[in-house]
Amino acid sequence: MHLYIHIPFCKQACHYCDFHFSTNTANKRAVVEAIAREIVLRQAYLPDGDMQTIYFGGGTPSMLDEAELNFLLETIHRQFRVAPNAEITLEANPDDLNAATLQMFSQAGINRLSIGIQSFHEPHLRFMNRAHSALEAEQCVRLAQHAGIDNISIDLIYAIPSENHAILQSDLSKAFTLGVPHISAYCLTIEPQTAFGSWLKKKKIQPIEEEYAAQQFEILVGSLRENGYEQYEISNFARNGHYSNHNSSYWKQHPYLGVGPSAHSYNGASREYNISNNAKYLQAIQNSIIPAMIETLSPADQTNEYLLTGLRTKWGVQLQKLEVLSAGRFALQAGDELGRMTRKGWIREDAGILLLTQAGKLFADRIASDLFID
Ligand code: SF4
Fold this sequence. Notes:
- This protein is an alpha/beta fold.
- The chain has two domains: 2-251, Aldolase class I (TIM Barrel), CATH 3.20.20; 299-370, Arc Repressor Mutant, subunit A (Orthogonal Bundle), CATH 1.10.10.920.
- It is built from 14 helices and 15 strands.
- The strands form three sheets. It has a nine-stranded mixed beta sheet, with helices on both faces.
- Helix 1 (28-41) packs parallel to helix 2 (66-79) and helix 11 runs antiparallel to helix 12 (319-325).
- The structure holds iron/sulfur cluster (SF4).
- Residues 10, 13-14, 17, 19, 21, 58-60, 93, 116 line the site of iron/sulfur cluster (SF4).
């Protein structure tokens, strides 16, 4: 069983971000109390079993104070059986990490940090409106390691407009020097409802060129491979098997419960999407109503979701499972397209499992959507 907790607050809006968050923290305590109440209301959502992973995401969960974090964790432990070796991750921003907060997180039971570094290059941090400096980005990882939290993931963003690839290479070198066991690397995308989206409309910035993004991706993958990181998902790299168990559970389609504004849940048959509005979320939970939209998944939805997430991973997708999910329609509908992809060298079959080739990884989402059934 897996639990996601969305903490919908940030200090400031990064120019690229379209996640749900608010910079007004006046009702932070009330939202935390509502999330705890939702955990109680949703206790029966998941089938019986130990909670294997707990993930505090956001927003910026490192903005939780000691009382708020402990209150949420105590509620979780009261409502669920948490496995003794459960992976408990907290997303943190460098500017929130110091010796005192790191000790507090560790004492609360956080055993994995996912740090939103994005870049070690000061002008890139300013361009994206990150709240931390390049120096803080570097120092916080060392501080965390010093505090005994070794299971660290850092987020990096690539394809940030730049004259050449030197800054990306320098970002990667810094990450390697720090010796973190996990790196998530995401391509900069310009979403309409963001500052970058509005600048693009006003032509204050240029769109990210596909070719430049592809070159950066190749540099990134090659460099990570040379330094001992395994690409176990298109955007996720681990050394010595330090995979994110929580995110892997999404990709393997295990059931999970998501609580908090904008959180999603999945039980194998349907997905639920909590409302992305803190005030409305608060009001509903105070009336014991879960403010979620429920989407029942058809056989085609289940097949297509499995393709979209599974093909991105090193575990690939099982042909037999595709047939079961699609009620026997996958080969009939997608067989020709699959043949074309195989001949192009983008996909290969190994003992009944479909896997992307290195060339195919450049077009993972397009390949999956071309194989979608209806
Ligand atoms: S990227 Fe993270 S810190 Fe920045 S606005 Fe989005 S959720 Fe907040």
